[in-house]
Amino acid sequence: MSQTSREMVERCLNFTYPERLPRQLWILPWAQQHFPDALEEINRRFPGDFAGSDYLYPASMVQKGDPYARGVYVDEWGCVFQNLQDGMIGEVQKPILEDLSEWKSIQPPYEQLPATRKQIQSMYDTIARSRERSDKFFMCSCCPRPWERYQFIRGSENALLDILMPERGFSALLKKIHDFYLKEIELWARSEVDAVSFMDDWGTQTQLLIDPSIWREVFKPLYKEYCELAKSYDKFVFMHSDGFIQDILPDLIEIGVNALNAQLFVMDLAWLEQTARGRITFWGEMDRQHVLTSRDPRVGREAVRKVARHLYDPSGGIIAQLEFGPGAWPETVMAVFEEWETVHQEAVSSKSG
After folding, report:
1. Which letter, b or e, does each residue of 62-99 get, where b requires 16 or more Cβ atoms within 10 Å of its Cβ?
2. CA separation for the pair 179, 152 (Å, rounded)
3. Distance CA 265, CA 287 (A)
4. Alpha carbons 75 and 62: distance in angstroms, whole number
5. Total domains present in the chain
6. How far is residue 265 CA from its own chain's centroid?
7. What CATH number is given to the structural domain containing 153?
8. % helix, strand, coil for the chain, step of 5
9. Pick from 170, 154, 152: nearest CA to 162
10. Distance CA 25, CA 16 (A)
11. By C-alpha distance, which of 256, 251, 327 is closest to 295?
């Protein structure tokens, strides 16, 4: 195979015919704890094409605990998560900002970001060395999430109410969060990574969490700034968002998102085909509710074929990605990767024939 992992991902994103579909497996600690041998075999047969750098942020003064261990975890912003089981992250039970008028008390973790010229250069040198040792496609090791961060700080119910009364401090707190993420994205975009990424879960099973017009007024401009900043340094842009997000998919394409990780099976695949095929790369993913939890590998194969009928093209636009987390079965995970290989091989053979 003449194309490196990096080249295959780039060709997929640019619709210039990768030799095979790029692959990525998201592994939660739960999978490592329950299926270590099967996981090793999946990685052996289908090694991923993505990597991150060796650069790590320094420890936060407020951070405590393990995000994937049972008990209490405090993150770098001071948000407190309660976890009821090992192997997956918990939820915020009590917001750290009860009174929105006290929004100035929230302090983003700027102390974790390199600030001096020496610190920044050390970060970039570490990233460059990581990239030199690998031919994989390098992602940034940060994940801005302004809406989710707001929810962690205020609680989900308060956050939804705050949007309706922006004059009470919502806009000011959101800007504070956003400004931190702009700084973080720029640091990574100036490095030798190939792409930057951000996320926010916007969908329920059937609709957007808020009115699409409010989303466009409040949040679209934030994401547009992230995209413009990344592209000013010639970086690809990846985004993740769970749930039904059809209403805002054209907006994400418009602002320049190159690859979207979304729950395809809660949306209309025929609509996605008409609206987005050839305009954005679908960065996975396979259904975690009904497909990956099935012990029958045929369910995984059929799901791949369903997606392929609507969204696959040999020129690019599909990354074979899925999450191996609670409830997933290794046989089905393996079958998904096998079937994507078969889909691509059949298309290439048909074209050459």
Report:
1. ebebeebbeeebbbebbbbbebeeebbebebeebbbee
2. 17
3. 6
4. 7
5. 1
6. 17
7. 3.20.20.210
8. 50, 15, 40
9. 170
10. 23
11. 327
Q: Which two tokens stand for residue 22?
A: 């790029």
Give the residue from 107, 96, 273 showing the smallest Cα distance to 177: 107
Give the three-state DSSP class for 72.
strand
Per DSSP, helices labelled H in 233-296 are 249-255, 269-276
Take residue 206 and report the two structure tokens written for it: 């059937």
Bridge partner residues of 82 (DSSP): 72, 91
DSSP letter for 195, please: E
- Give 211's DSSP letter: -
Q: What are the pLDDT tens digits along the chain (353 aa)? A: 699 999 999 999 999 999 999 999 999 999 999 999 999 999 999 999 999 999 999 988 899 999 999 999 999 999 999 998 888 888 998 899 999 999 999 999 999 999 999 999 999 999 999 999 999 999 999 999 999 999 999 999 999 999 988 778 999 999 999 999 999 999 999 999 999 999 999 999 999 999 999 999 999 999 999 999 999 999 999 999 999 999 999 999 999 999 999 999 999 999 999 999 999 999 998 999 999 999 999 999 999 999 999 999 999 999 999 999 999 999 999 999 999 999 999 998 887 65
Which residue is associated with the tokens 């999978």? 31
Instruction: Count other C-beta atoms under 10 Å from residue 248's C-beta.
Output: 19
Question: What would the two tokens of residue 325 be?
Answer: 């987390």
Residues 24 and 12: beta-carbon distance below 8 Å: no
- 59 in helix, strand or coil? coil
- Residues 6+ away with beta carbon under 8 Å from 43: 25
Please compute Rg for the chain using Cα positions.
20
Place of tokens 């259904």: 287
Alpha-carbon separation of residue 112 from 56, 58, 89, 120, 222 (angstroms): 9, 6, 21, 12, 22
Segments in the chain forming alpha helices (H)? 5-14, 29-34, 36-45, 117-132, 146-154, 156-164, 170-189, 212-218, 220-232, 249-255, 269-276, 297-311, 330-352
In terms of residue numbers, what domain contains 178? Answer: 5-352
